[in-house]
Design a protein that fits this description.
heterodimer; A: mainly alpha; 14 helices; 2 strands; about 0% strand; globular; B: mainly alpha; MetI-like fold
Chain lengths: ~325, ~280
Amino acid sequence: MAKISFWLQRLAQLLIVLLLVTFGVSMLLRLIPVDLATVLLPVGSESERAVLRAEIGLDKGPIAYYLQWLGDFVQGDFGKIYFSGGTEEVSTHLAQAMPRSMLLMIYTQVFALAVAIPLGVISAYRAGRRADRIISNTLFTFSSVPSFAIALILIIIVGTKLAWLPTLGYVTYSEGFAEHFKHMIMPVLALSVGLIATYTRLLRADMIAALREDYVTMAASKGLSDRRILWRHVFRPSSITLFTSAALSMGGLIGGAIVIETIFATYGVGFEIFAAISGRQYVALQSTVAVIALFYVLFNLVVDIASGFVDPRTRDRRVNA
Amino acid sequence: MRKFTIPTWFSISWLGLMFFFTIFGWLLPFKSWTTVFEDDLGVAPFSAGHLFGTDTNGYDLLASVVSGTRMSIFIAITAVGLGGLIGSVLGITAAFLRGKVDTVMVTLFNVGLSVPNLVLALALVSVLATNLDINQAVPTWRRVMVLIIALTIVIIPILGRIARGATLSWSNREFVTAARSMGMRDRNIIIRHIVPNVLPALIAVGFLAIGVVIIAEAALSILGVGIPDGASWGGMIARGRNDLEYAPHVLYVPLVFLALTVISTNHLGDVIRSGLDRRESKV
């Protein structure tokens, strides 16, 4: 019973965070010292603006405005993007942008884990030796270099000097598998360098701790090979923190990819945010930020549940805490 | 005192140099970063008269990067200083008082942390930097102020959470109980016993936060809502993107400065933190 009420509590916490985030963004928008209807329809007539105000609730107080937006959002109406020529649904934009960002994120995570796991295992196995020092120091240095710097240097060298890869745009994989990956390589590299460093560091620390456990000595005394001990007895228990942190970084990646998506013109969710801000599309901004926050919070919840299933110790500890 | 390693010495000297540029940069005999050298367009680095070369507009890159350093470091230190001060006051108070104050504060920190840094900063900048007349450009000093405010708000929950966590663990120690049982006032306990113990952890994370702010400022400038006209590292990167194909050194100069600075702050933060762990493990 304690467990059910624990999860309900956790769910309620997440809901409160979500409501506060969206409420905060909504209040922030109402703080803008100009009339939002004028910003959204700079060339429209006064009567058109009055219609717009009534439509999105700008004629009401801030709280009523938020409640109306929330009601629409929950029903899947994310609002509109306004141009001089008409309007577009935010949901259509997101429907195009979401899969792109998702793919970018999945590739980044897979690539980062594929590189980080062997590096982490090697540096834990050779802890303090030369291989470990080289790996740790190199990764630490690279993790401090922001992703946009890596992106720009890749564009200069791989994109323009060598002209191996296209520097702009996105191709869906139905339009061409090879082209799709060619467009993804540089954004994925730029985004994953920082993650590789974080993951390797985590895995190394966890594995070094696990290597000191008695059951490792036991396994070694039974004559098991180093390789088998390392992967079966040390890597498996250590990987939980790694995968938790990988899942947690997903939410941050959606938003963190803003600069990368803008530099490479990938037009994912990050770019939608940038476009909403530079085009002063505040309704779109509010809904897109809400979608990102929603994903972030959902990932957190999924991670909590999953780590509870994988490792019952964490579940009990949290219930008792 | 432990001996410093070579990377630590390098980090200290590099940050010292950046700090020196920030304070005394205007006194040094560099060229003016706003002067256009019409005869030297897109000159490569290490050529006569222009150590780092010029960009294709004819701006001297050494002068630009020094003045960019002043702007970027100034923004970073101010934002982290203000954010750290507000965040640690909130975090320490919340952890010390516990109860409802703590619950509210933790929720607010979580709200701040659940929006990715850059999204939060972008939203704040776009709201704060909107002019009454929407067609009028925002003056640079106001952009700087807006950036500092936005980045301060980004930093508050990051350092606030650290301060809260550290306070929670320290306020359970025997010496705090002893001070309380001797009738010491809460305010004095916090100032005399909590703050000195929480401060090292805050400084360690503060160094990392400086890196976060420098990167965020540059990212915002690349997106066109930060510092315009190449007046900061980010501004230089944003402007240098036009020269990407023909004069890539225009990008390399600010990128190297930025990267070395962030590597240095991260490294020092790390050194301080591992020093703390060592001290704690002796207790």
